Amino acid sequence: MINIIPMETINNKTNWALSARTKERIVNLSSYFFIILFIYAASSKMLYHQQFEHQVSQMPMFSGIAGLVAWIVPFIELSISALLLFNMTRLIGLVAGGIMLVVFTLYLVIILNFAGHRPYSDGGLFEMLGWQGHLRLNLVCIILCYFGVMLRMNSDYYKY
Length: 160
Description:
Blueprint: H1 7-12, H2 20-47, H3 49-57, H4 66-85, H5 90-114, H6 124-153
Helix pairs in contact: 2-3, 2-4, 2-6, 3-4, 4-5, 5-6
């Protein structure tokens, strides 16, 4: 009889550990995904800057500073992408990206539950997702980011 799971694993509750190389690959792939995601989001906001600024100005909390917000958000997204590019700053980039995703997800929840008017400002693929789809995507991305941070912090190759 072939044992798929060794008995000592079941009896001793031994964890299946990921190799350092596997952790590195998962962190790198998730980082590349976030680089593409944030560059796409920033590019979309900059290409349709006037539309983005107008839609930001329709939100009561940002109406007075819409011009500033319309430039700061893509700048932050591009900055996070730059942090994710380099091994030395990848953990900072993952944490910053996770924070940005959590903040934007909270904003989406507020808009979905309390706003009568729902301006949409991303354009492109995100607009096709709609509000509910965008919320689901953000939740998946937050989970991916969390695992990236955890793997990166517990990785053997994470050395300065």
